[in-house]
Design goal:
Chain lengths: ~60, ~260
């Protein structure tokens, strides 16, 4: 639970930072999630990384409004 | 440019700003100085639109419009820039990509064509020279692994690229060694123009040796207790904040000595 709380807190700061630079919430969320995933995928074997990236693009579309 | 009237702000029921009045004209640079806990950061965060603060009274006009009604994003797009005291790390997001997204959001808002990656890279390579950061910083994730001084220089890089009308610099000088301070101060000074206003929030006078303010305000316990010309900053440097605190300890002005 503590970890979740910390994660969401970091998310708020990041969203505010993006908003202060004029970036919309939708663009900011996709940017932050993509960035986070990119770092995680970096740890995965190549085949997984390609698949995961595709999946992420699909699942992010239309989730933020 | 910016007019603040009797601004009151609370956090979790506790009043932090207790009636701030401030007027900044186009082309002016004002410094707000105060010790830790005086409300400096609350002030800058509220102006940028952070929603963790409750505005309990007063008005903020920006170019004649009610600033407090605008979202943080709209404020930015309307030309308000905050240099963060603690710039935020965004893992995995390329610094250039981030800044290009910001520039394009602004262009879109103004009905201009977006800038492509090639042109943007050329632009940013020119700008980064002004803050004397290595080009390798363009390709690193936003603020990740940057030293304190590098983060502040990156904030100034963003400011120089986004070209705001009102720049609020929240302790941009803190944690900088003298070389980094000079670079940051020169970056700010070179950016001054008759149309652009600055609010420099700081604990220390030293940055004001490089960027001469038009006005200096002393923030103590949520109130501006004194305003004056550049000399006021020097006086504070010599005497500290205790002198003003003592000087203003009369009932009714709220500075607890």
């Amino acid at each position: 639970m503590e970890h979740e709380a910390t994660t969401s807190r970091i998310g708020e700061d990041q969203l505010f930072y993006c908003a202060q630079r004029g970036i919309s919430t939708e663009d900011a969320v996709s940017m932050i999630v993509n960035g986070f995933c990119k770092q995680v995928f970096h740890e995965l074997p190549m085949e997984f990384a390609v698949e995961a990236r595709k999946l992420m693009e699909v699942s992010l579309e239309g989730t933020v409004g | 440019m910016l007019e603040i009237k009797n601004l009151h702000v609370s956090v979790e029921g506790q009043e932090i700003l207790k009636g701030i009045d401030l007027k900044i004209k186009p082309g002016e640079l004002h410094a707000v100085m105060g010790p830790n806990g005086s409300g400096k950061s609350t002030f800058s965060q509220v102006l940028a639109g952070r929603d963790t603060y409750e505005i309990t009274g007063g008005k903020v006009l920006y170019g004649g419009r009610n600033l407090l009604e605008l979202s943080p994003e709209e404020r930015s797009l309307e030309g308000v820039f905050l240099s963060f005291q603690y710039p935020v790390v965004i893992p995995g997001v390329n610094n250039t990509y981030f800044l290009q997204a910001a520039v394009n959001a602004q262009r879109k808002y103004r009905g201009e064509e977006e800038i492509d990656a090639v042109d943007f890279l050329a632009l940013i390579k020119e700008k980064i020279k002004l803050v004397q950061l290595d080009e390798s910083f363009l390709h690193r994730p936003v603020n990740e692994g940057f030293s304190g001084g590098e983060k502040k220089r990156n904030e100034i890089l963003q400011m120089l690229t986004l070209e705001p009308k009102l720049a609020i610099l929240d302790e941009t000088d803190s944690g900088l060694d003298i070389d980094a301070l000079k670079i940051v101060a020169e970056g700010i000074d070179s950016f001054r123009s008759p149309e652009r206003s600055f609010l420099v929030i700081t604990h220390y006078q030293r940055i004001l040796n490089y960027i001469e303010p038009d006005r200096v305000h002393v923030l103590l316990d949520g109130r501006i207790v004194r305003s004056g010309g550049p000399d006021l900053a020097h006086e504070l440097e010599q005497k500290g904040y205790g002198w003003i605190q003592y000087d203003n300890s009369a009932p009714g002005n709220g500075a607890d000595a």
